[in-house]
Amino acid sequence: MNAADEVAGAIARGLPEHTAPMGEAEFERLYSATAGPILGYLTAVSGRRDVAEDLLQEAYCRFLAQGPARSGLEAEAARRYLFRIASNLLRDRWRMGDGQPFTEPAESGVAANYDTTLEVQAMLQHLNPKERTLLWLAYVEGMDHAEIAAATGLGRLSVRTLLFRARGRARRLLEGELR
Amino acid sequence: MTGIDDRLRQGLRGYAAALAATQTAPPSSLVWLRAERRRRRAAVERAERPLRVMQAVGLLSGIAATGWLLVTSGLDRASLGTPMLALAIAAPILAAGGCWAMVAASRGAARS
Q: Full-prediction pTM beyond 0.90?
């Protein structure tokens, strides 16, 4: 059992097993709080909005079908669990060999700094899916190494090393290679 | 490292904001409905499992009974008797057919 399994196990053990399954109103509250960040994550890592929307629905269906979707579930635990499911779905997709990135970029009109957005988009395009995953979870979601390990299924030490490398590649891309 | 960290953070968060502004998640009711449909289908499949086992058991025991009747009668159709032979053939067909009908009915109920 690796660190990620241990964290996932701890999450599962902390869940209220004897409470009723989650009702629709409670699910709606959870969904409105978490769907946006998870959709952003899926879009940034898969690079395709259609795929991201499909995976988002699949992630919530699995969440509801598996044990943890229970009444009174802590929002943070649910969020971690959903990121874990989303990461697994992305990994399954790469394993099937379906990984064409960035067919639908972020639109220009809404970005606060269009140049930066384009640079970041180009940078993400040049990174591999694992690097995109790690950078997104670390910098956008603000997760620490243990949380990233739990969300991705990687060991904590691997996360540290891979994140260091991903950061280095991102830096090189932003500083020179894309110019 | 802090400079690049800040730049990465700002850049990625800006990109996330741009994505969030141009993309909305499907309504929660749609996801809930899809999950409910899947849950119901899984429940039906669970309920069908014993019926499928019974179907296989019925078919196999019918075949075994027919074989046993044929062997004990020394493959002499006259001593076996037509009603007995008809019964041995009809029993597995009825058992399998009955199970199939129950499975079909439960699937129809799950769809509606």
A: no
